[in-house]
Amino acid sequence: MWIVNETNFTPSSQHHKETIFTIGNGYLSTRGALEEGFPGDRRATFVHGVFDDVPVSVTELANAPDWLPLHVFLNGERFSLATGQLHSFERDLDLRSGLLTRRVRWTSPQGCTATLVFERFASLEDEHLLCLRCQVLPEFDGSVEFRASLNVNMDNEGIVHWTHIDQRFHEVSGAEPVVHLSSRTRNSGIHLAMAMRLVGAAPLQPEFWDVPGVPTLCVSLPASRGNAVEITKFVAVTTARDTTQPVEMALERVTLPANWDQALHAQHQAWQQIWDRMEVTIEGDDEAQLAVRFSMFQLQVAAPRHDNRVNIGAKTLSGFGYHGHAFWDTEIFMLPLFTCTSPRIARNLLEYRYLTLDAARAKAKEAGFRGAWFAWESADSGAEVTPTWVPDFRDRKKLARVWTGDLAIHISADIAYAVRQYWLVTGDDDWMIACGAELIFETARFFASRAGWDESRNAYGYKDVLGPDEYHDHVDNNAYTNLLARWNLTTAGQVAEWMQSSHPHKASVLFAKLGLEEDEFRHWQHVAANIFLHVRSNGLIEQFDHFFERTDVNLEDYEPRSRSMHVIFGIQAANEYQVLKQPDVLMAQYLLHDAFSAASIQANYDYYTPRTDHTYGSSLGPSIQAIIACMVNKPEEAYEHFMRAARADLRDERSNAGDGIHGASAGGVWQAVVFGFGGLRVSENGWTTQPRLPAHWKRLTFRFFHRGRQQVVTFPGK
Ligand code: IFM
Predict the structure, then answer these.
(1) Which one of 12, 48, 91, 490 is separated from 347 by 20 to 30 angstroms, measured CA to CA?
(2) Ligand 1, residues at Cβ distance < 6 Å
(3) DSSP secondary structure code for residue 9 in this structure
């Protein structure tokens, strides 16, 4: 179960397929659009960190110049799935190596038949390198012509980000010639260079077509029935974020691979090393097995391996959705996979937050608070890039206000939580002292200053916020927010004590840098000890002030449905009901499980589960719901939720996979297997497991690293 496979070409699902056939290497990703193009395709390559801002809209990851174009002509007729006759079509993504293969048998309008095999991968060995091969097996005599291009004329769904600078043909002594294309983002001014080289079975003499913005190399080869011809297109991509001389670097990198086989061999080896670190096997359930591998693959291809100035967008690097912006999706949903299997990547992602601390401090200050309030949506600088208005989904002529950037304060605690989790799992004290502690202190400082004293309750609280459940905005004392804030403040105290006792000098340097004194630490603990939480005697927690007074709804009454309850009720009205977009109290109980009794978790599970929009609410919900179901020992119920997450992209369950991979759901799929069904928990005292496998699973095996040592856990089924 390593292959994601498609056996028919269905134009109406091309955007979904482009998403799931995304390939990448942590530097860039390319959607699975066809090399020769197809009407209405959403072809895109996203390079980490290449953001551009646009007037009126928000900063977004710019769809890079297109490296894919490879047009094939059979006796002068252009190969295209929009014309001629398609006899067979098959596409495979091999998750073991990131190799995407498409096999097509096709007859041109004039009757030339051939089998064409396109293969491509984004090299892990050299992250600047992209490799594409096309083999043509003609069933005719004559010629096969290949026209390979780079194309600067790309946009983000109509918004143009690129200015063409230059292009040129370069003779290379003793090797194939190379062409380059040089461009710059319009507003952020990031210089991006691409270089292309064609390699054939025999030495090639390609012709250069100097089309402005679309430099093209053409090769015409004699064709005879039954004899395959092939071409390999190597492309190197570099930007001014990597070097001061992107063109020179691209020209050098593109000449390095000797041929396709050598590049592919290196690719297999590099991926093998990744899989050795993180492999999960589920025996007895092929669909779940493929889904968990697919999820891990898609997160790995989006994860910056060598760059700590970027994060992973909610839609990874695989689509236009959310403009490449990073949310809490990274820290709470995706990061655990990296923390447990590839800590170097986890560190890069957390360091992005460390490097954007000043932007978070500025956001807090602007709102009148201290410490670090991280952007709800974050791009290059860490400044808030959440759009304030978006088209209303019920009437696109109107605008709807987006409140997350103003109200979702829990993001700061989510980041602190991920820092602490990284530290627990890796034991990386040096990093904790260098970066992690500052993140935890500055977020704690924010929660201390954002807390308001409520005289009537004799407690601190957070008014006018938005928790994970986005069906309810402008609420007071969202339980998730209050619990995570309390945790953040308490943890800051513990980290400060640990630093003072084990690294006193470094502690005093950091405290002096941040202006932290004993009084402030004491105040944090005072706030933490007095944060309001409404808990009933059975442990049931009210999601926010007066939630229990809102109208109760039996979601069963709305079945069958194919829309979210937000759409059914309307944005404003949804606020009035006890219906959740995604787990909120339960989410906090999962993250802070040690703070709750089994009875309290059960009471909240029983109350909130039937009130949650599992099918069309947030895609972030099902995996967490699955973990909580495991915590209350309901593995079969957990499995239903788990499969909703597992199918979000592979089956396009929510009809929006075309916008890009649901990165949080993918991370949640891994967590549901490891933390849910496997019951892994890591604490100061080590790690434990509590298997709760669905009845049909014959065996579950997973790997993770604890304090630098790989652990392999295996559980037989019942
Ligand atoms: O971060 C999420 C949020 O929790 C729900 N709406 C989508 C965002 C991006 O995935």
Answers:
(1) 490
(2) 314, 322, 327-329, 468, 470, 618, 620, 664
(3) -
